[in-house]
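Here is one chain, start to finish.
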Amino acid sequence: MSTELVLQMLRERGVTAESVAEIVLRLQKPYNKALTIEVCLESVMTVLAKREVQYTLMTGIALDELAERRLLPEPLQSILEADEPLYGVDETLALGIVHVYGMIGLTSFGYLDKQKIGVIRDLNDHEREIHVFLDDLVAGLAAAASARIAHQNQPVSTYFEKLCETGEAGADTKEPA
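Its structure:
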């Protein structure tokens, strides 16, 4: 139920799961040539199914909407209207989504926060609506979905198999001389 609610809230703000999946595909395709938009969309939906992600998105969207209606107390209202660069609370909230899938999500988020690709750019550059939180939350969602795919791409057992094949297994476990 709450996944559908969040999807509806996102659509009302101009974001679809498909538009996030396109960003995920762009992030992961260089590392996974067989990756499809369908796999990316599945990853986005899996991340969206997490309750903490849903709550984070609901909170950020609500704050953006309150700012648009000029219902926030000053100086917060003016800070959000100006999208003050040193505000940082928007990125902090988005990091709650990013950290669901580890450090690789953090690096992807940093890239997306600077490059603002796809729907993230559309949100950031929108002239009539305030998306101080939503552009970063979408970047966080895409980064987490991308990290989820990266974690599935090559299992750690592959590295151990390579060590066994070369006969170097356990080389790091030798005691120092």
